[in-house]
What we know:
Blueprint: E1 8-10, E2 17-19, E3 23-28, E4 32-33, E5 39-41, E6 45-48, E7 56-61, H1 64-72, H2 75-80, H3 86-96
Antiparallel strand pairs: 1-2, 3-6, 3-7, 4-5
Amino acid sequence: MRQKKIPMRKCTGCSEMKEKRQLVRVVKAPDIKDENGQVIKQGEISVDTTGKKPGRGAYVCNDPKCLSAARKARRFEKAFSCKIPDEVYEKLEQQLGM
């Protein structure tokens, strides 16, 4: 019998490949555009607990050290090409138990 493939993702903090379900997903929702293609509203950045929200995702370990390393190196800003509000970092810190 063939084994099921385990999805792997890279942590933005420590850059290690780990199983997807061991990591926390941070997602940027798609931008809202008008009929001419102009951006009306930027997509919201939030913590995705289900792993099913639409949008661009970045992953971080359940380790506070990885989150602080990703925040210090601005890796979420680079992944999403926008500024990350402090509320998102605070929500992540609460979820990781910092």
